[in-house]
Amino acid sequence: MYAYTDFDRQFVHARAAQFRDQLERNLAGTLTDDEFRPLRLQNGWYVQRHAPMLRVAVPYGVMSSRQLRQLARIAREFDRGYGHFTTRQNLQYNWIPLPQAADVMDLLADVDMHGIQTSGNCIRNITSDATAGVAPDEIVDPRPYAEVLRQWSTLHPEFAFLPRKFKIAISGAREDRAAIAWHDIGLQLKKNEAGEVGFEVLVGGGMGRTPVIATTIRDFLPWQQILVYIEAIVRVYNRYGRRDNAYKARIKILVKAEGQAFFDDVNREFAQILQDDPAGHEHIIPQAELDRVAASFVVPAGVAAVPGLDLFEGVQPGAYKRWLERNVHGHRLSGYRAVTLSLKRVGQAPGDATDAQMDAAAQLADQFSHGELRVTHDQNLLLPWVRESDLPALFEAARDNSFATPNIGLLTDMIACPGGDFCALANARSIPVAAEITERFQDLDEQYDIGDIDLHISGCINSCGHHHSGHIGILGVDKDGTEWYQITLGGSDGSTLSGASQAGKVIGPSFAADEVGDVIESVVSTYKRERQAAERFIDTVRRVGIEPFKAAANAVRSSTAAR
Protein backbone atom coordinates (compact mmCIF):
# COMPACT_ATOMS: atom_id res chain seq x y z
CA MET A 1 0.00 0.00 0.00
CA TYR A 2 1.06 3.60 -0.54
CA ALA A 3 3.74 4.74 1.93
CA TYR A 4 3.20 8.30 3.10
CA THR A 5 6.18 10.62 2.71
CA ASP A 6 7.09 13.37 5.18
CA PHE A 7 5.28 15.80 2.90
CA ASP A 8 2.13 13.65 2.92
CA ARG A 9 2.13 13.47 6.71
CA GLN A 10 2.71 17.18 7.12
CA PHE A 11 -0.14 17.77 4.69
CA VAL A 12 -2.77 15.75 6.58
CA HIS A 13 -1.64 17.07 9.96
CA ALA A 14 -1.82 20.64 8.65
CA ARG A 15 -5.31 19.93 7.32
CA ALA A 16 -6.34 18.56 10.73
CA ALA A 17 -4.95 21.67 12.44
CA GLN A 18 -6.79 23.90 9.99
CA PHE A 19 -10.03 22.03 10.73
CA ARG A 20 -9.47 22.42 14.48
CA ASP A 21 -9.20 26.18 14.04
CA GLN A 22 -12.38 26.27 11.93
CA LEU A 23 -14.26 24.12 14.45
CA GLU A 24 -13.17 26.21 17.43
CA ARG A 25 -14.26 29.40 15.67
CA ASN A 26 -17.61 27.83 14.83
CA LEU A 27 -18.20 26.65 18.40
CA ALA A 28 -17.22 30.13 19.64
CA GLY A 29 -19.73 31.75 17.30
CA THR A 30 -17.23 33.69 15.17
CA LEU A 31 -17.67 31.38 12.18
CA THR A 32 -21.36 30.89 11.37
CA ASP A 33 -22.89 27.49 10.67
CA ASP A 34 -23.44 28.51 7.04
CA GLU A 35 -19.78 29.53 6.71
CA PHE A 36 -18.59 26.37 8.46
CA ARG A 37 -20.78 23.97 6.49
CA PRO A 38 -18.69 23.74 3.26
CA LEU A 39 -15.51 23.54 5.34
CA ARG A 40 -16.68 20.64 7.50
CA LEU A 41 -18.20 18.85 4.49
CA GLN A 42 -14.90 18.79 2.61
CA ASN A 43 -13.36 17.21 5.70
CA GLY A 44 -16.03 14.50 5.76
CA TRP A 45 -18.34 15.87 8.48
CA TYR A 46 -22.10 15.81 7.93
CA VAL A 47 -24.91 16.72 10.31
CA GLN A 48 -27.28 13.78 10.06
CA ARG A 49 -30.65 12.85 11.51
CA HIS A 50 -29.48 12.39 15.10
CA ALA A 51 -25.84 13.45 15.32
CA PRO A 52 -22.80 14.38 13.21
CA MET A 53 -21.50 11.74 10.82
CA LEU A 54 -17.86 11.39 9.82
CA ARG A 55 -16.84 9.68 6.60
CA VAL A 56 -13.22 8.51 6.64
CA ALA A 57 -11.48 8.02 3.31
CA VAL A 58 -10.00 4.62 2.53
CA PRO A 59 -8.39 5.39 -0.86
CA TYR A 60 -9.23 2.66 -3.40
CA GLY A 61 -10.15 0.47 -0.41
CA VAL A 62 -6.62 -0.29 0.82
CA MET A 63 -5.66 0.02 4.48
CA SER A 64 -3.26 -1.42 7.04
CA SER A 65 -3.94 -3.26 10.26
CA ARG A 66 -2.50 -0.25 12.13
CA GLN A 67 -5.05 2.02 10.50
CA LEU A 68 -7.93 -0.36 11.24
CA ARG A 69 -6.90 -0.50 14.90
CA GLN A 70 -7.04 3.29 15.01
CA LEU A 71 -10.51 3.19 13.46
CA ALA A 72 -11.51 0.72 16.17
CA ARG A 73 -10.13 3.04 18.84
CA ILE A 74 -12.13 5.97 17.48
CA ALA A 75 -15.28 3.85 17.45
CA ARG A 76 -14.67 2.81 21.04
CA GLU A 77 -13.64 6.17 22.51
CA PHE A 78 -15.66 8.67 20.47
CA ASP A 79 -18.60 6.82 18.92
CA ARG A 80 -20.90 4.06 20.16
CA GLY A 81 -18.53 1.21 19.52
CA TYR A 82 -18.92 0.52 15.81
CA GLY A 83 -18.42 1.86 12.29
CA HIS A 84 -20.04 1.30 8.90
CA PHE A 85 -18.12 0.31 5.75
CA THR A 86 -19.67 1.76 2.60
CA THR A 87 -19.98 0.90 -1.09
CA ARG A 88 -17.38 3.58 -1.83
CA GLN A 89 -14.79 1.78 0.30
CA ASN A 90 -14.99 4.33 3.12
CA LEU A 91 -15.83 4.03 6.82
CA GLN A 92 -18.58 6.08 8.48
CA TYR A 93 -19.19 6.96 12.12
CA ASN A 94 -22.64 8.13 13.16
CA TRP A 95 -22.40 9.37 16.74
CA ILE A 96 -19.23 11.43 17.25
CA PRO A 97 -20.04 14.73 19.05
CA LEU A 98 -18.98 17.67 16.91
CA PRO A 99 -16.92 19.33 19.70
CA GLN A 100 -14.67 16.21 19.62
CA ALA A 101 -14.32 16.23 15.82
CA ALA A 102 -10.87 17.85 15.77
CA ASP A 103 -9.48 15.28 18.22
CA VAL A 104 -10.66 12.53 15.88
CA MET A 105 -9.05 14.20 12.87
CA ASP A 106 -5.73 14.32 14.75
CA LEU A 107 -5.98 10.59 15.52
CA LEU A 108 -6.68 9.86 11.86
CA ALA A 109 -3.72 11.96 10.74
CA ASP A 110 -1.49 10.00 13.13
CA VAL A 111 -2.08 6.90 10.97
CA ASP A 112 -2.06 8.65 7.57
CA MET A 113 -5.85 8.90 7.29
CA HIS A 114 -8.36 11.73 6.91
CA GLY A 115 -11.82 12.65 5.70
CA ILE A 116 -10.71 15.07 2.99
CA GLN A 117 -13.18 15.25 0.10
CA THR A 118 -15.35 12.39 1.31
CA SER A 119 -18.18 14.90 1.04
CA GLY A 120 -18.95 18.16 -0.69
CA ASN A 121 -19.23 19.05 -4.38
CA CYS A 122 -15.73 17.92 -5.26
CA ILE A 123 -13.90 14.84 -6.55
CA ARG A 124 -14.64 12.18 -3.94
CA ASN A 125 -12.71 9.09 -2.83
CA ILE A 126 -11.43 7.21 -5.89
CA THR A 127 -12.54 3.58 -5.80
CA SER A 128 -11.17 0.43 -7.40
CA ASP A 129 -11.32 -3.35 -7.45
CA ALA A 130 -10.72 -4.73 -3.95
CA THR A 131 -8.57 -7.49 -5.45
CA ALA A 132 -6.30 -5.03 -7.27
CA GLY A 133 -2.73 -6.29 -7.37
CA VAL A 134 -3.68 -9.90 -6.61
CA ALA A 135 -6.45 -10.75 -9.09
CA PRO A 136 -5.54 -13.54 -11.54
CA ASP A 137 -7.33 -11.73 -14.40
CA GLU A 138 -5.52 -8.43 -13.87
CA ILE A 139 -4.10 -6.67 -16.93
CA VAL A 140 -2.53 -3.70 -15.14
CA ASP A 141 -2.44 -2.95 -11.41
CA PRO A 142 -4.72 0.09 -10.98
CA ARG A 143 -3.47 1.11 -7.52
CA PRO A 144 -0.52 3.30 -8.58
CA TYR A 145 -2.73 5.18 -11.03
CA ALA A 146 -5.47 5.54 -8.42
CA GLU A 147 -2.92 7.00 -6.00
CA VAL A 148 -1.64 9.49 -8.57
CA LEU A 149 -5.24 10.53 -9.23
CA ARG A 150 -5.88 10.86 -5.49
CA GLN A 151 -2.90 13.13 -4.99
CA TRP A 152 -3.78 15.24 -8.04
CA SER A 153 -7.43 15.71 -7.07
CA THR A 154 -6.90 16.37 -3.36
CA LEU A 155 -7.71 20.04 -2.65
CA HIS A 156 -7.53 20.82 -6.36
CA PRO A 157 -8.34 24.56 -6.28
CA GLU A 158 -10.28 24.56 -9.55
CA PHE A 159 -12.58 21.70 -8.55
CA ALA A 160 -13.43 22.48 -4.92
CA PHE A 161 -16.96 23.69 -5.71
CA LEU A 162 -18.29 21.70 -8.63
CA PRO A 163 -21.99 21.71 -9.55
CA ARG A 164 -22.33 18.41 -7.67
CA LYS A 165 -20.27 15.59 -6.14
CA PHE A 166 -17.98 13.76 -8.54
CA LYS A 167 -16.98 10.09 -8.42
CA ILE A 168 -14.23 8.21 -10.24
CA ALA A 169 -13.66 4.44 -10.34
CA ILE A 170 -10.77 2.56 -11.92
CA SER A 171 -10.33 -1.08 -12.89
CA GLY A 172 -7.32 -2.92 -14.24
CA ALA A 173 -8.78 -6.40 -14.63
CA ARG A 174 -10.64 -8.19 -17.39
CA GLU A 175 -13.71 -8.36 -15.16
CA ASP A 176 -15.13 -5.08 -13.95
CA ARG A 177 -15.41 -5.42 -10.17
CA ALA A 178 -15.50 -1.65 -9.58
CA ALA A 179 -18.79 -0.84 -11.40
CA ILE A 180 -16.96 1.77 -13.48
CA ALA A 181 -19.87 2.44 -15.85
CA TRP A 182 -21.94 3.68 -12.91
CA HIS A 183 -19.54 6.54 -12.17
CA ASP A 184 -19.09 10.12 -13.32
CA ILE A 185 -15.80 8.93 -14.78
CA GLY A 186 -14.93 5.27 -15.21
CA LEU A 187 -11.40 4.21 -16.13
CA GLN A 188 -10.50 0.82 -17.59
CA LEU A 189 -6.79 0.09 -17.85
CA LYS A 190 -5.78 -1.90 -20.91
CA LYS A 191 -2.85 -2.64 -23.20
CA ASN A 192 -2.78 -2.06 -26.93
CA GLU A 193 -1.25 -4.40 -29.52
CA ALA A 194 2.17 -2.90 -28.86
CA GLY A 195 1.86 -3.68 -25.17
CA GLU A 196 1.53 0.00 -24.21
CA VAL A 197 -0.67 0.85 -21.21
CA GLY A 198 -3.60 3.19 -21.61
CA PHE A 199 -7.11 3.92 -20.43
CA GLU A 200 -10.54 3.47 -21.87
CA VAL A 201 -12.30 6.54 -20.48
CA LEU A 202 -16.02 6.43 -19.73
CA VAL A 203 -18.00 9.50 -18.69
CA GLY A 204 -21.50 10.40 -17.55
CA GLY A 205 -22.57 7.42 -15.45
CA GLY A 206 -24.50 7.64 -12.22
CA MET A 207 -27.46 6.45 -10.21
CA GLY A 208 -29.88 8.67 -8.31
CA ARG A 209 -33.16 9.91 -9.70
CA THR A 210 -32.04 9.35 -13.30
CA PRO A 211 -29.87 6.23 -13.66
CA VAL A 212 -27.46 6.53 -16.59
CA ILE A 213 -24.74 4.19 -17.86
CA ALA A 214 -21.48 5.95 -18.73
CA THR A 215 -20.43 6.29 -22.36
CA THR A 216 -16.93 5.71 -23.71
CA ILE A 217 -15.35 9.03 -24.69
CA ARG A 218 -11.86 7.65 -25.47
CA ASP A 219 -11.12 4.05 -26.41
CA PHE A 220 -7.42 4.29 -25.62
CA LEU A 221 -5.70 7.20 -23.93
CA PRO A 222 -1.97 6.84 -23.12
CA TRP A 223 -1.65 6.60 -19.35
CA GLN A 224 0.72 9.58 -19.20
CA GLN A 225 -2.11 11.89 -20.33
CA ILE A 226 -4.84 10.76 -17.93
CA LEU A 227 -4.59 13.76 -15.57
CA VAL A 228 -4.85 16.19 -18.46
CA TYR A 229 -7.87 14.38 -19.91
CA ILE A 230 -9.71 14.22 -16.61
CA GLU A 231 -8.90 17.90 -16.08
CA ALA A 232 -10.55 18.61 -19.44
CA ILE A 233 -13.66 16.61 -18.54
CA VAL A 234 -14.10 18.24 -15.15
CA ARG A 235 -13.42 21.73 -16.55
CA VAL A 236 -16.20 21.32 -19.13
CA TYR A 237 -18.53 19.98 -16.44
CA ASN A 238 -17.60 22.81 -14.08
CA ARG A 239 -18.30 25.34 -16.81
CA TYR A 240 -21.63 24.00 -18.10
CA GLY A 241 -23.04 21.76 -15.35
CA ARG A 242 -26.31 22.99 -13.87
CA ARG A 243 -26.27 24.72 -10.52
CA ASP A 244 -29.94 25.68 -10.42
CA ASN A 245 -31.29 22.19 -9.73
CA ALA A 246 -29.48 19.65 -7.50
CA TYR A 247 -31.31 16.77 -9.19
CA LYS A 248 -29.99 17.80 -12.61
CA ALA A 249 -26.51 18.89 -11.56
CA ARG A 250 -24.58 15.64 -12.04
CA ILE A 251 -22.40 15.27 -15.13
CA LYS A 252 -24.64 12.46 -16.40
CA ILE A 253 -27.37 15.02 -17.12
CA LEU A 254 -24.97 17.25 -19.05
CA VAL A 255 -23.60 14.34 -21.08
CA LYS A 256 -27.08 13.04 -21.82
CA ALA A 257 -28.31 16.47 -22.89
CA GLU A 258 -25.30 17.48 -25.00
CA GLY A 259 -24.14 14.13 -26.38
CA GLN A 260 -21.43 14.51 -29.01
CA ALA A 261 -21.20 18.24 -28.32
CA PHE A 262 -19.97 17.44 -24.81
CA PHE A 263 -17.37 15.03 -26.18
CA ASP A 264 -16.20 17.64 -28.67
CA ASP A 265 -15.89 20.27 -25.94
CA VAL A 266 -13.81 17.91 -23.80
CA ASN A 267 -11.45 17.05 -26.64
CA ARG A 268 -11.03 20.73 -27.52
CA GLU A 269 -10.31 21.53 -23.87
CA PHE A 270 -7.82 18.65 -23.74
CA ALA A 271 -5.96 20.01 -26.76
CA GLN A 272 -6.08 23.55 -25.40
CA ILE A 273 -4.56 22.51 -22.06
CA LEU A 274 -1.65 20.85 -23.81
CA GLN A 275 -1.12 23.64 -26.33
CA ASP A 276 -1.92 26.86 -24.46
CA ASP A 277 -1.93 26.35 -20.68
CA PRO A 278 1.36 27.65 -19.24
CA ALA A 279 1.76 24.50 -17.14
CA GLY A 280 -0.35 22.14 -19.23
CA HIS A 281 2.47 19.71 -20.00
CA GLU A 282 3.37 19.48 -16.32
CA HIS A 283 0.24 17.38 -15.86
CA ILE A 284 1.60 14.68 -18.16
CA ILE A 285 2.73 12.00 -15.71
CA PRO A 286 6.46 11.30 -16.01
CA GLN A 287 7.60 7.70 -15.79
CA ALA A 288 9.71 8.57 -12.75
CA GLU A 289 6.66 9.76 -10.81
CA LEU A 290 4.64 6.65 -11.63
CA ASP A 291 7.63 4.53 -10.63
CA ARG A 292 7.93 6.44 -7.33
CA VAL A 293 4.30 5.76 -6.47
CA ALA A 294 4.32 2.20 -7.84
CA ALA A 295 7.25 1.33 -5.56
CA SER A 296 4.75 1.23 -2.68
CA PHE A 297 2.62 -1.37 -4.43
CA VAL A 298 4.88 -4.38 -4.42
CA VAL A 299 4.52 -7.93 -3.20
CA PRO A 300 5.09 -7.95 0.60
CA ALA A 301 8.43 -9.18 1.85
CA GLY A 302 8.40 -12.95 2.27
CA VAL A 303 5.63 -13.51 -0.29
CA ALA A 304 6.55 -15.59 -3.34
CA ALA A 305 4.78 -18.12 -5.49
CA VAL A 306 4.82 -21.66 -4.09
CA PRO A 307 3.26 -24.87 -5.36
CA GLY A 308 -0.51 -24.64 -5.14
CA LEU A 309 -2.65 -26.98 -3.06
CA ASP A 310 -5.84 -28.86 -3.84
CA LEU A 311 -7.99 -26.92 -1.37
CA PHE A 312 -10.79 -29.47 -1.37
CA GLU A 313 -8.75 -32.65 -1.05
CA GLY A 314 -10.12 -34.57 1.92
CA VAL A 315 -12.51 -31.77 2.88
CA GLN A 316 -15.89 -33.06 3.99
CA PRO A 317 -19.16 -31.24 3.28
CA GLY A 318 -19.79 -28.59 5.91
CA ALA A 319 -18.99 -25.06 7.00
CA TYR A 320 -15.33 -25.12 6.00
CA LYS A 321 -16.04 -26.43 2.51
CA ARG A 322 -18.72 -23.79 1.97
CA TRP A 323 -16.33 -21.10 3.21
CA LEU A 324 -13.71 -22.29 0.71
CA GLU A 325 -16.30 -22.14 -2.05
CA ARG A 326 -17.67 -18.69 -1.22
CA ASN A 327 -15.16 -16.64 0.75
CA VAL A 328 -11.86 -17.79 -0.78
CA HIS A 329 -10.87 -16.35 -4.15
CA GLY A 330 -8.23 -16.90 -6.81
CA HIS A 331 -4.84 -15.20 -6.71
CA ARG A 332 -2.20 -14.31 -9.28
CA LEU A 333 0.47 -16.02 -7.18
CA SER A 334 0.42 -19.78 -6.96
CA GLY A 335 -0.07 -20.96 -3.39
CA TYR A 336 -1.92 -17.80 -2.29
CA ARG A 337 -5.55 -16.74 -2.04
CA ALA A 338 -7.58 -13.63 -1.31
CA VAL A 339 -10.15 -14.18 1.45
CA THR A 340 -13.30 -12.21 2.23
CA LEU A 341 -14.22 -11.53 5.85
CA SER A 342 -17.99 -11.35 5.70
CA LEU A 343 -19.66 -8.37 7.40
CA LYS A 344 -23.12 -9.78 6.67
CA ARG A 345 -24.71 -11.74 9.49
CA VAL A 346 -27.83 -11.89 11.62
CA GLY A 347 -28.04 -9.12 14.20
CA GLN A 348 -25.87 -6.47 12.52
CA ALA A 349 -26.52 -4.10 9.63
CA PRO A 350 -24.70 -4.91 6.38
CA GLY A 351 -21.23 -3.34 6.46
CA ASP A 352 -21.23 -2.67 10.20
CA ALA A 353 -18.30 -3.74 12.38
CA THR A 354 -17.86 -3.25 16.10
CA ASP A 355 -14.63 -1.91 17.59
CA ALA A 356 -13.86 -5.45 18.81
CA GLN A 357 -14.45 -6.86 15.34
CA MET A 358 -12.22 -4.21 13.76
CA ASP A 359 -9.47 -5.08 16.22
CA ALA A 360 -9.99 -8.76 15.43
CA ALA A 361 -9.84 -8.13 11.68
CA ALA A 362 -6.60 -6.19 12.18
CA GLN A 363 -5.16 -9.15 14.07
CA LEU A 364 -6.19 -11.52 11.27
CA ALA A 365 -4.49 -9.20 8.76
CA ASP A 366 -1.28 -9.26 10.79
CA GLN A 367 -1.36 -13.01 11.24
CA PHE A 368 -2.44 -14.07 7.77
CA SER A 369 -2.10 -11.17 5.28
CA HIS A 370 1.07 -9.20 6.03
CA GLY A 371 -0.88 -6.48 7.81
CA GLU A 372 -2.98 -5.46 4.80
CA LEU A 373 -6.76 -5.38 4.30
CA ARG A 374 -9.15 -4.13 1.64
CA VAL A 375 -12.65 -2.68 1.90
CA THR A 376 -14.85 -4.15 -0.85
CA HIS A 377 -17.53 -2.50 -2.96
CA ASP A 378 -19.94 -5.02 -1.40
CA GLN A 379 -19.25 -3.74 2.15
CA ASN A 380 -17.02 -6.57 3.32
CA LEU A 381 -13.32 -6.78 4.24
CA LEU A 382 -10.77 -8.75 2.26
CA LEU A 383 -7.35 -10.19 3.12
CA PRO A 384 -5.25 -10.12 -0.07
CA TRP A 385 -2.12 -12.15 0.87
CA VAL A 386 -3.22 -15.43 2.47
CA ARG A 387 -1.14 -18.60 1.99
CA GLU A 388 -3.21 -21.59 1.01
CA SER A 389 -1.61 -23.59 3.81
CA ASP A 390 -2.97 -21.05 6.33
CA LEU A 391 -6.59 -21.33 5.20
CA PRO A 392 -7.72 -23.87 7.85
CA ALA A 393 -6.30 -21.72 10.67
CA LEU A 394 -7.75 -18.54 9.16
CA PHE A 395 -11.16 -20.16 8.91
CA GLU A 396 -11.15 -21.06 12.59
CA ALA A 397 -10.01 -17.55 13.61
CA ALA A 398 -12.53 -15.88 11.29
CA ARG A 399 -15.35 -18.06 12.63
CA ASP A 400 -14.41 -17.18 16.22
CA ASN A 401 -14.86 -13.49 15.32
CA SER A 402 -18.08 -13.78 13.24
CA PHE A 403 -16.35 -13.22 9.88
CA ALA A 404 -16.76 -16.69 8.39
CA THR A 405 -20.37 -16.66 7.18
CA PRO A 406 -20.04 -18.50 3.83
CA ASN A 407 -22.48 -16.24 1.98
CA ILE A 408 -20.35 -14.15 -0.39
CA GLY A 409 -22.39 -13.52 -3.53
CA LEU A 410 -25.54 -15.02 -2.02
CA LEU A 411 -28.80 -13.35 -1.04
CA THR A 412 -27.76 -12.29 2.47
CA ASP A 413 -24.51 -10.76 1.20
CA MET A 414 -26.57 -7.69 0.39
CA ILE A 415 -25.57 -4.07 -0.04
CA ALA A 416 -27.49 -1.59 2.12
CA CYS A 417 -27.07 2.06 3.04
CA PRO A 418 -27.76 3.21 6.65
CA GLY A 419 -31.13 4.59 5.51
CA GLY A 420 -33.60 6.51 7.62
CA ASP A 421 -32.22 5.26 10.92
CA PHE A 422 -29.31 7.67 10.47
CA CYS A 423 -29.37 9.62 7.20
CA ALA A 424 -31.20 12.96 7.09
CA LEU A 425 -31.78 12.52 3.35
CA ALA A 426 -33.40 9.09 3.55
CA ASN A 427 -37.09 8.57 2.87
CA ALA A 428 -37.25 5.13 4.49
CA ARG A 429 -35.23 2.77 6.62
CA SER A 430 -32.91 0.21 5.05
CA ILE A 431 -31.59 -1.62 8.10
CA PRO A 432 -34.90 -3.22 9.23
CA VAL A 433 -35.59 -4.38 5.67
CA ALA A 434 -32.13 -5.93 5.45
CA ALA A 435 -32.60 -7.56 8.85
CA GLU A 436 -35.94 -9.13 7.90
CA ILE A 437 -34.57 -10.55 4.65
CA THR A 438 -31.50 -11.92 6.46
CA GLU A 439 -33.75 -13.60 9.04
CA ARG A 440 -35.99 -15.13 6.39
CA PHE A 441 -33.12 -16.53 4.36
CA GLN A 442 -30.57 -17.41 7.01
CA ASP A 443 -30.77 -21.12 6.16
CA LEU A 444 -27.56 -21.69 4.19
CA ASP A 445 -28.95 -24.71 2.36
CA GLU A 446 -31.71 -22.49 0.99
CA GLN A 447 -29.26 -19.73 0.08
CA TYR A 448 -27.06 -22.21 -1.80
CA ASP A 449 -30.11 -23.54 -3.64
CA ILE A 450 -31.02 -19.98 -4.69
CA GLY A 451 -27.43 -19.35 -5.78
CA ASP A 452 -25.71 -16.15 -6.90
CA ILE A 453 -27.85 -13.06 -6.54
CA ASP A 454 -27.18 -9.37 -5.88
CA LEU A 455 -29.66 -7.66 -3.56
CA HIS A 456 -29.16 -3.91 -3.08
CA ILE A 457 -31.13 -1.60 -0.76
CA SER A 458 -31.24 2.21 -0.81
CA GLY A 459 -33.14 4.35 1.67
CA CYS A 460 -33.70 7.14 -0.85
CA ILE A 461 -33.26 8.15 -4.47
CA ASN A 462 -29.64 9.19 -3.87
CA SER A 463 -28.91 5.47 -4.33
CA CYS A 464 -26.09 5.02 -1.81
CA GLY A 465 -27.16 1.36 -1.66
CA HIS A 466 -26.78 1.04 -5.46
CA HIS A 467 -30.29 -0.38 -5.83
CA HIS A 468 -30.35 0.33 -9.59
CA SER A 469 -27.53 -2.18 -10.19
CA GLY A 470 -28.98 -4.99 -8.06
CA HIS A 471 -30.46 -8.13 -9.54
CA ILE A 472 -33.10 -7.23 -6.98
CA GLY A 473 -33.21 -3.56 -5.98
CA ILE A 474 -35.17 -2.08 -3.10
CA LEU A 475 -35.67 1.70 -2.97
CA GLY A 476 -37.23 3.48 -0.01
CA VAL A 477 -39.73 6.20 -0.97
CA ASP A 478 -41.81 8.57 1.11
CA LYS A 479 -45.56 8.95 0.73
CA ASP A 480 -47.16 11.42 3.12
CA GLY A 481 -44.61 10.65 5.79
CA THR A 482 -44.99 6.86 5.47
CA GLU A 483 -42.27 4.41 4.41
CA TRP A 484 -42.86 2.65 1.10
CA TYR A 485 -40.55 0.55 -1.07
CA GLN A 486 -40.15 0.27 -4.82
CA ILE A 487 -38.81 -3.03 -6.18
CA THR A 488 -36.66 -3.34 -9.31
CA LEU A 489 -35.37 -6.44 -11.09
CA GLY A 490 -32.60 -7.18 -13.57
CA GLY A 491 -30.00 -4.55 -12.70
CA SER A 492 -26.31 -5.10 -13.35
CA ASP A 493 -23.07 -3.63 -12.01
CA GLY A 494 -20.96 -4.72 -14.99
CA SER A 495 -19.44 -7.86 -13.44
CA THR A 496 -19.11 -11.11 -15.37
CA LEU A 497 -22.04 -12.64 -13.50
CA SER A 498 -24.34 -9.68 -14.12
CA GLY A 499 -23.32 -8.71 -17.63
CA ALA A 500 -23.17 -5.22 -19.09
CA SER A 501 -24.21 -2.48 -16.69
CA GLN A 502 -27.89 -1.63 -16.75
CA ALA A 503 -30.56 -0.33 -14.41
CA GLY A 504 -33.20 -2.66 -13.03
CA LYS A 505 -36.84 -2.35 -14.08
CA VAL A 506 -39.58 -1.37 -11.63
CA ILE A 507 -42.11 -4.17 -11.17
CA GLY A 508 -45.08 -2.01 -10.20
CA PRO A 509 -46.43 0.40 -7.60
CA SER A 510 -44.47 0.60 -4.38
CA PHE A 511 -45.09 -1.72 -1.45
CA ALA A 512 -45.72 -0.99 2.21
CA ALA A 513 -42.93 -1.73 4.68
CA ASP A 514 -44.71 -4.80 6.06
CA GLU A 515 -44.99 -6.30 2.55
CA VAL A 516 -41.36 -6.15 1.45
CA GLY A 517 -40.25 -9.43 3.03
CA ASP A 518 -43.15 -11.30 1.41
CA VAL A 519 -42.41 -9.66 -1.93
CA ILE A 520 -38.77 -10.76 -1.91
CA GLU A 521 -39.81 -14.26 -0.93
CA SER A 522 -42.34 -14.38 -3.77
CA VAL A 523 -39.74 -13.16 -6.28
CA VAL A 524 -37.29 -15.83 -5.17
CA SER A 525 -39.98 -18.52 -5.29
CA THR A 526 -40.87 -17.46 -8.82
CA TYR A 527 -37.24 -17.79 -9.84
CA LYS A 528 -37.04 -21.30 -8.38
CA ARG A 529 -40.15 -22.26 -10.29
CA GLU A 530 -39.11 -20.71 -13.62
CA ARG A 531 -35.39 -21.48 -13.71
CA GLN A 532 -33.79 -23.99 -15.99
CA ALA A 533 -31.02 -26.33 -14.89
CA ALA A 534 -28.09 -24.42 -13.33
CA GLU A 535 -29.61 -21.10 -14.44
CA ARG A 536 -28.81 -18.14 -12.20
CA PHE A 537 -31.38 -15.63 -11.01
CA ILE A 538 -30.30 -12.79 -13.30
CA ASP A 539 -30.37 -15.07 -16.34
CA THR A 540 -33.87 -16.31 -15.52
CA VAL A 541 -35.13 -12.75 -15.16
CA ARG A 542 -33.70 -11.85 -18.56
CA ARG A 543 -35.06 -14.97 -20.22
CA VAL A 544 -38.65 -14.85 -18.93
CA GLY A 545 -38.99 -11.09 -18.36
CA ILE A 546 -40.30 -9.35 -15.25
CA GLU A 547 -44.03 -10.14 -15.72
CA PRO A 548 -44.04 -13.48 -13.81
CA PHE A 549 -42.17 -11.81 -10.94
CA LYS A 550 -44.44 -8.78 -11.02
CA ALA A 551 -47.54 -10.99 -10.85
CA ALA A 552 -46.12 -12.96 -7.91
CA ALA A 553 -45.19 -9.78 -6.04
CA ASN A 554 -48.63 -8.24 -6.55
CA ALA A 555 -50.26 -11.46 -5.37
CA VAL A 556 -48.78 -11.08 -1.88
CA ARG A 557 -49.92 -7.50 -1.37
CA SER A 558 -51.82 -7.07 1.86
CA SER A 559 -51.62 -3.47 3.09
CA THR A 560 -51.69 -2.19 -0.51
CA ALA A 561 -54.04 -4.80 -1.98
CA ALA A 562 -56.80 -2.29 -2.65
CA ARG A 563 -54.55 0.23 -4.37
UniProtKB/TrEMBL annotation:
<dbReference type="GO" id="GO:0050311">
    <property type="term" value="F:sulfite reductase (ferredoxin) activity"/>
</dbReference>
<keyword id="KW-0479">Metal-binding</keyword>
<dbReference type="InterPro" id="IPR005117">
    <property type="entry name" value="NiRdtase/SiRdtase_haem-b_fer"/>
</dbReference>
<dbReference type="InterPro" id="IPR051329">
    <property type="entry name" value="NIR_SIR_4Fe-4S"/>
</dbReference>
<protein>
    <submittedName>
        <fullName>Nitrite/sulfite reductase</fullName>
        <ecNumber>1.8.7.1</ecNumber>
    </submittedName>
</protein>
<keyword id="KW-0560">Oxidoreductase</keyword>
<keyword id="KW-0411">Iron-sulfur</keyword>
<feature type="domain" description="Nitrite/sulphite reductase 4Fe-4S">
    <location>
        <begin position="414"/>
        <end position="553"/>
    </location>
</feature>
<dbReference type="InterPro" id="IPR036136">
    <property type="entry name" value="Nit/Sulf_reduc_fer-like_dom_sf"/>
</dbReference>
<dbReference type="Pfam" id="PF03460">
    <property type="entry name" value="NIR_SIR_ferr"/>
</dbReference>
<feature type="domain" description="Nitrite/sulphite reductase 4Fe-4S">
    <location>
        <begin position="119"/>
        <end position="260"/>
    </location>
</feature>
<keyword id="KW-0004">4Fe-4S</keyword>
<keyword id="KW-0408">Iron</keyword>
<keyword id="KW-0349">Heme</keyword>
<dbReference type="Pfam" id="PF01077">
    <property type="entry name" value="NIR_SIR"/>
</dbReference>
<feature type="domain" description="Nitrite/Sulfite reductase ferredoxin-like">
    <location>
        <begin position="53"/>
        <end position="110"/>
    </location>
</feature>
<dbReference type="InterPro" id="IPR006067">
    <property type="entry name" value="NO2/SO3_Rdtase_4Fe4S_dom"/>
</dbReference>
<dbReference type="InterPro" id="IPR045854">
    <property type="entry name" value="NO2/SO3_Rdtase_4Fe4S_sf"/>
</dbReference>
<feature type="domain" description="Nitrite/Sulfite reductase ferredoxin-like">
    <location>
        <begin position="349"/>
        <end position="399"/>
    </location>
</feature>
